[in-house]
Specification:
The complex is a heterodimer of chains A (507) and B (109). Chain A is α/β, with parallel strands linked by helices and 507 residues long. Chain A is 33% helix and 26% strand. In chain A, helix 11 crosses helix 12.
Chain lengths: 507, 109
């Protein structure tokens, strides 16, 4: 039995052509197959043309490879204008003879055919174009019009000829097509045509546009199989991949203080683990933002950087509110240690926010990221989709040793049916719960550490006070010896939901 | 056109003659000596001789000799027979074996 030696970075790697598209090179492990055609399919408006164009422009700008773009749909002026907003200056590249655009108008009516023919004319034009700029990258966008106009059988055999020809002249090609067309459904032409097939999808879920990318096939290479969300922003396409390396990350034993001394005391006297994830959940108005903002204050005071993503209160509101409890964030805003990300939650879906946040993280390199509250972004309700996206995001943060704090609003009543319990609470390393309770006929708040992995933490339910001097945690003491029924209930609930078995009985 | 009743007929007839007497300018694009192309040339000549006797001009162009023409004439399929004149411009693709199709496609009466 021959021994199969699995080497990670050895040779025998399929030669690939980097796309320069963020996230895509990661999930394809190096880009598209070099000197081979890749089929990019999708419905209308899914972004195929943009992806194809970005592949070419990056080729010119980043990898010094000239390109040819044959458009069977939009004319040249339209194309140039459409991608201008992404920062692609096609006119410049054309002027420098790095890019050649040709428009091939094809009417949708069948042409009169009087006998045998082939599409050599297209080959010739393609050849001329490639010669003109010495292209290494080519795009044909999109095939469908050809299929309306010419005979299917002819096109099928011609495409076999085309890809053989493309391989022969050392050109990496992207061919786009509409999904569900005769092109793809009949006899699976992509089997013949492409070594690699990527499918783009553009759906509307809950009135919000959601884009997904999937590598259906990649002959000769390992590839990510999943659907990855992606977005198109002012710089082009960003794909949000699952980072597999994260689970093998070494976890740090370093600690970071929460900014609330009483809380740090409950956390084994040392605070959170550096690079860990923290969830602060509680009903509305219980002080989650105060906890988060106090944490950010402490982070900045220690000369670290904090990115505060606000999804409910506007940044200046947060700053103003914190002033009333003795926390002044103004100086940190000025110095740049504290940066806010504020966007209307309903503007776009969860992934887009996370992608935008990722961008900011790349730019600012914060040590701590706060999302307050995360529940505002989960409009679709708890489901595995959201959980996957959040897992990826948390893994990404772990990879960069960034400590993250989520706040989550829970509805009054059953805690079990809250989003924070369906996915996030089991995902995070530390879970703090804040609740409204009644003590001695007075409404107050309680705080309890539901869990904190890897450390011995207090399971005490403390009274949670926000005063002019900040947040304080006091033991719940009543005038009678035994706590009121409300407090007892709160304590019981806290204990029931506490997932840390070892913490029971430990002070 | 002011004519007496009697001579209207003849005027029309004259006009018809003029119409059918219009010169046809045809351009056949082929790829060298490949079978489709060879057939197309033969068929084109035959059709022209039969239906457009004495009033046609047939240009046969090997696209390999003039590749830039492919873009100029927006060629994809080959062989292609393009009727340049009389206007409007029409074209048919294929080796021209189907005579009916050729005449129909190019609006040749």
């Amino acid at each position: 039995m021959p021994k199969v030696i699995k080497t990670k970075k050895q040779d025998l790697k399929f030669p690939k052509s980097l796309t320069g598209i963020q996230g895509l090179d990661l999930i394809t492990e190096g880009g598209l197959p070099r000197n081979r055609p890749t089929l990019v399919l999708g419905n209308t408006g899914c972004g195929k043309t943009i992806m194809a164009m970005e592949f070419l422009v990056n080729g010119i700008v980043l990898f010094d490879e000239s390109a040819v773009f044959f458009s069977f749909e939009e004319d040249i002026a339209e194309l140039v204008l459409n991608v201008k907003s992404l920062g692609f200056d096609l006119d410049k590249h054309i002027a420098n003879n790095r890019l050649y655009l040709e428009h091939i108008p094809i009417t949708r009516s069948k042409i009169s055919d009087t006998g045998n023919y082939d599409i050599e004319g297209l080959f010739i034009r393609l050849g001329e174009a490639i010669k003109k700029v010495k292209a290494k990258r080519v795009v044909l966008d999109s095939l469908d019009n050809l299929f309306y106009r010419f005979d299917y059988k002819v096109l099928r055999s011609e495409f076999k000829r085309l890809l053989t020809w493309l391989k022969g002249i050392d050109v990496t090609a992207i061919i786009t097509g509409e999904i569900g067309n005769t092109l793809t459904s009949r006899d699976g032409i992509e089997e013949y045509v492409a070594d690699c097939v990527i499918v783009l999808d553009n759906r509307v879920v809950n009135q919000i546009t959601t884009r997904r990318l999937r590598i259906v096939k990649y002959r000769g290479s390992v590839h990510g199989n999943n659907e990855y969300p992606f977005t198109i922003d002012s710089n082009g396409i960003i794909v949000l991949p699952f980072i597999e390396g994260a689970i093998q990350q070494k976890s740090s034993s370093k600690r970071i203080l929460s900014g609330i001394p009483d809380l740090d005391e409950m956390l084994d006297k040392k605070g959170f683990f550096l690079g860990s994830s923290v969830l602060v959940s509680g009903t509305a108005g219980t002080g989650k933002t105060s906890i988060a903002a106090t944490f950010s204050y402490s982070v900045c005071k220690n000369k670290l950087r904090c990115l505060y993503c606000a999804f409910e209160e506007a940044p200046n509101q947060v700053v103003r509110n914190m002033r009333s409890i003795g926390i002044s964030l103004d100086s940190f805003l000025k110095s740049g240690h504290l940066q806010f990300y504020y966007a209307r939650p309903t503007l776009q879906n969860l992934e887009l926010h996370l992608i935008a946040i990722k961008e900011m993280i790349h730019e600012l390199k914060p040590n701590v990221v706060i999302l307050d509250p995360i529940t505002n972004l989960m409009t679709e309700g708890p489901n595995s989709d959201i959980r996957t996206i959040l897992t990826r995001f948390v893994d990404f943060l772990k990879l960069h040793q960034i400590t993250v704090m989520f706040t989550a609003a829970i509805t009054v009543g059953s805690i079990e049916r809250n989003p924070s319990d369906e996915g996030i609470s089991s995902m995070v390393d530390t879970w703090i719960m804040v609740q409204d309770i009644e003590v001695d006929a007075k409404r107050t708040r309680s705080l309890c550490i539901m869990k904190s992995r890897g450390m011995s933490h207090s399971n005490e339910v403390r009274r949670f006070n926000i005063t002019k001097t900040g947040i304080h945690l006091l033991p719940i003491v009543t005038h009678e010896n035994s706590p009121s029924t409300e407090t007892k209930r709160a304590i019981k609930e806290h204990l029931n939901l506490s997932t840390s078995k070892e913490s029971i009985g430990i002070k | 056109m002011k004519v007496k009743n009697g001579s209207v007929q003849s005027t029309i007839k004259v006009e018809a003659d003029e119409i059918s007497g219009e010169r046809y300018l045809l351009r056949l694009i082929i790829t060298g000596i490949l079978p489709n192309s060879a057939r197309a040339v033969a068929n084109a000549k035959a059709i022209c001789e039969k239906y457009l006797t004495g009033r046609y001009e047939l240009e046969i162009i090997d696209i390999y000799q003039q590749p830039s023409l492919a873009l100029e004439e927006q060629i994809i399929a080959i062989p292609v027979l393009i009727k340049k004149l009389p206007l409007p411009e029409e074209r048919v693709i294929g080796d021209l074996s189907d005579t009916e199709m050729v005449l129909d496609g190019l609006n040749i009466i």
